[in-house]
Amino acid sequence: MSDAQILILDEPTAAVDAFREHRLYEQFAQMARNKTVVFISHRFSTVRMADVIVVIENGQAIEVGSHEELLAKDGKYTAMFSTQAARYR
After folding, report:
1. Do 68 and 37 form a contact (C-beta atoms < 8 A)?
2. pTM for this structure?
3. What are the pLDDT digits (tens) for 11-54?
4. Are 6 and 38 in contact (CB under 8 A)?
5. What is the pLDDT of residue 1?
6. Radius of gyration, alpha carbons of the chain
7. Is the dihedral of CA 63, 67, 72, 74 positive or negative?
8. In angstroms, what CA-CA distances link 85 with 1, 46, 88?
9. Nearest residue to 18 via CA among 48, 41, 46
């Protein structure tokens, strides 16, 4: 990983299985301390780790907040999260 203070990661674990993804994020959490990290992801397991989540639609930020804040708004984020989570029930 770079020594840069700002990291941008676009779907960083898209090509790995769930076990490797977990290990990578455990390692990544340690290495990313005191850095700003921008995750671009469709996986809510990744998204939930963020302090601030920005939902983008048609090039516009339509919702901004933490996971809990966005769920409470009951908007687009909630609909996407619920749709993805339904596959695990």
Report:
1. no
2. 0.80
3. 888 888 889 988 888 888 887 888 898 989 888 878 888 899 99
4. yes
5. 56
6. 14
7. positive
8. 31, 13, 5
9. 46
